[in-house]
Specification:
Elements (H helix, E strand, L loop, with lengths): L5 H34 L7 H12 L4 H12 L8 E8 L5 E8 L2 H14 L3 E2 L24
Antiparallel strand pairs: 1-2, 1-3
Helix pairs in contact: 1-2, 1-3
């Protein structure tokens, strides 16, 4: 009876779940690292770090993983240099857009952002080209990726 192996079914399901969890953990580790880098490694004095840690713990991230991410962000470890960068530009129809990113490779990120802008009929501007039009009030977080 081909295709009825219980282990094969578990293996495929576990592979998908592990990939999904790994992607989430990568995102959470980056947020913890950036928060520690910007506001220091003490959660009681850094509300952004406290929120990132709470988010990590609620998603079953181990305390050891969180501590390593804090250490990396606070300057104790230089293996992962993650920066927060803001890109500004105009989208289709002249809509002003600001894109905040976290990246470990600025060149790759700017190329991807420029590609998405041009693919949808927009263009990437210079610093300050659209930021004067905005007042920061909230945050929109998108989960889906752009299909190539």
């Amino acid at each position: 009876m081909a295709g009825h192996s219980k282990w094969a079914n578990i293996q495929h399901r576990k592979g998908r779940q592990d990939a999904k969890r790994g992607k989430l953990f990568t995102k959470l580790i980056r947020e913890i690292t950036v928060a520690a880098k910007l506001g220091g490694g003490e959660p009681n004095a850094n509300p952004r770090l406290r929120a990132a840690i709470d988010n990590g713990l609620s998603n079953n991230m181990t305390k050891d993983t969180i501590d390593r991410a804090i250490k990396r962000g606070a300057g104790g470890d230089d293996s992962g240099n993650v920066d927060e960068i803001r890109y500004e530009g105009y989208g289709p129809g002249g809509v002003a857009l600001i894109v905040d990113t976290m990246t470990d490779n600025k060149n790759r990120t700017v190329a991807e952002i420029r590609h998405v802008f041009s693919k949808f009929g927009g263009n990437l501007g210079t610093d300050g080209s659209v930021s004067y039009l905005f007042t920061k009030i909230g945050l929109i977080s998108l989960q889906n990726e752009v299909d190539e």
